[in-house]
Amino acid sequence: MIKGFIFDLDGVITDTAELHYEAWKSLADEMGWKFDRDVNDKLRGISRMDSIKVILDHNKTALEESKLEELATKKNDIYVASLDHMTPEDYLPGAKELLTHLRAEGFSVALGSASKNAIKVLQQLNANGYFDVIGDGNSVSKSKPAPDIFLYGSEKMSLQPDECIVFEDAESGIDAAKAGGFHSVGIGPEDRLGHADLRFDTMAEATLFEVKAHFKELFS
Ligand code: G6P
Ligand code: MG
C-alpha cells in the first residue's frame, strides 16, 4: 500500500538542472574545458564533487583535490547567485499541482535531493509546506546511486521503502530507488529513464490520477 512519496528536487520540482548546467558551463568556459548537455545529463543526481570529477574525466584531465574543491566552490557561487532570481512561479509545470493533490489526499511527502542548496531552492519556491521531511545533500554521506537519501526519507516518514514512490529525473536516482526497494517514477526521456517502473516525459503528465492508474493494486 502506497503511503508516501519522495521527490528529487532538481529537474523534478523545478528546472534547476538548467541552472546547474549554466553554472558548470561558465566554469568550463573559463577553464577551457569541453562541456555540453550530454555531459550535463551525467551530472543529474550526483554530488558537486563527483560532478567536477566527471567533467574532468570527460576532458581527460586530473587536478589535485584542493584545486577541485576550489573550482567546485566557484561553480557553486555562480549557481547560488542564479537562485536569487527563482520565484514561486518557477515550479516545473504540473509539480505544484501534484504536491497540492498529495497534501489534500493526506500522503506523507519527503524531499530526497543530493543538493546542499535544497533549502534555499525550497525557500525561493515557497515550497516548504509541501514536505514532511527534507532530505538533502547534508542528510547522508553516500550519494545516488546509493539508496541512502531515499532510505533517510522513508525512515523519517516511518514507512517501508515499498510503501513509497520515488520521483526522479536522474538515471542514478532511479538506480538508487531500485537499490533501496522503492517504486519509481522517471521524469524525462526513455534513453535516460527507461528502467523506471513508470515514466513520463514531463511532470505535466505525472498526475496523481495517472500514477494511481499504473500502480493500482498498490493504492487499494
Ligand atoms: C542534484 C543535481 C546535481 C547536483 C547535486 C548537488 O542532485 O541533480 O546535478 O550536482 O544536486 O547539488 P549542489 O547544489 O549541492 O551542488
Ligand atoms: Mg534531479
UniProtKB/TrEMBL annotation:
Entry protein name: Beta-phosphoglucomutase
InterPro entries linked to this entry: B-phosphoglucomutase_hydrolase, Beta-PGM, HAD-like_sf, HAD-SF_hydro_IA, HAD_sf, PGP-like_dom2
Catalytic machinery residues: 8 (nucleophile), 10 (proton donor/acceptor)
NCBIfam families according to UniProt: bPGM, HAD-SF-IA-v3, PGMB-YQAB-SF
Example GO biological process: carbohydrate metabolic process
Leader sequence residues: none
Native species: Flagellimonas flava
UniProt-listed Pfam families: Hydrolase (PF00702)
Positions marked as site (Important for catalytic activity and assists the phosphoryl transfer reaction to Asp8 by balancing charge and orienting the reacting groups): 113, 144
Family affiliation: Belongs to the HAD-like hydrolase superfamily. CbbY/CbbZ/Gph/YieH family.
